[in-house]
Structure formats: C-alpha cells, structure tokens
Amino acid sequence: MRPDRIILGEVRGPEALDMLQAMNTGHDGSLTTIHASTAPDAITRVETMVAMAGLNLEGSALRYYITSALDVIIQLTRLSDGSRKLTSFQEVSKAGECLQEIFRFEQTHVDEEGKVHGFFKATGIVPKCVEHFQSLGIEIRSDLFDASKIHPC
C-alpha cells in the first residue's frame, strides 16, 4: 500500500515520530492536528512529543527534522463568541529558523449580539508553496498576498 496522503486526528504523544517519518518520506499533503496556543508553540510541542518516543537527537537536528516535514501551520482559535476562525497561516522555514506569517485574522469589533467581526490580512510575504503550485499548473492570483488588501471573512 502506498498512500498519497496521510490524515491523522490529534497527535499527542510519541506517535508524532511516526507522523514525521511518514511526512519526511514522500507523503506530501499529509496533515494532522496539534493543540498549541501559537505556531511556535506547535513546533515545540512536536519536539516534546518526539522526545517522548525516545529519539535522542540534538535540539537543532530535531528541529530540522520537524521543519523538513512541515510546510505550513494553520492556527485555529476559538473566539469569545464561541466561533472558531483561522487566525494565522504561517509558512515553516525549511532552515528551521523561523515561521513566516502569510495571513492573519484581525478582529475589528464584537457586535451587540456578541459576534466577533474582522477580516483576513496578508502580510505581504509570498509563500514558497506558490512556486510549487505554479509548477503543477495551478495559478494563484498575485494580489492575494498584497498587504494593502483586506480579505473579508
């Protein structure tokens, strides 16, 4: 069996190592859920879970292994009105040095019924994955990443 995609529910223990190994061996487009407060916290949480598996890698080597498996981290947040919104879309640097935020949700107000309102804002950074999409013949509008544009949600 050679699956093209692997989709996991929540990862919360040493199985994170198996997940990373699968993602690092040709299963592009795989995804999983990790509970964390921020994108950097998600990477730290994966490091902790891999350590639970007993893999003894130096910190920088472990971070490189993790970031070579991950392309993006999508942060969903439960807002004060109980709704869940995508609040941050970040690209993972292959050097393992940093995360680059591509889009963020900016809350404008809470209406009289308590509903949260806002918009998505591009940061102006064009993610590396756009080049990959273009090589597959998938066109992405260039103005999508324009930091002066507001994207309603």
Description:
The chain is α+β, with helices and mostly antiparallel strands and 153 residues long. It has 2 domains: 1-70, 3-Layer(aba) Sandwich (Rossmann fold), CATH 3.40.50.300; 73-153, no CATH class. It is built from 4 helices and 7 strands; from the N terminus they run βαβααββββαβ. It has helices at 15-23, 39-52, 59-69, 129-135; strands spanning 7-10, 31-33, 72-78, 84-92, 99-110, 116-122, 150-152. A 5-stranded antiparallel β-sheet has the order 3-4-5-6-7, covered by helices on one side. α1 links the parallel β1 (7-10) and β2. α2 packs across α3 (59-69). The longest helix has 14 residues, at 39-52. The mean pLDDT is 88.
Derived structural class: alpha+beta
Number of helices: 4
Number of strands: 7
Average pLDDT reading: 88
Overall 3D shape: globular
Query: How far do the termini sit from each other?
Result: 40 Å
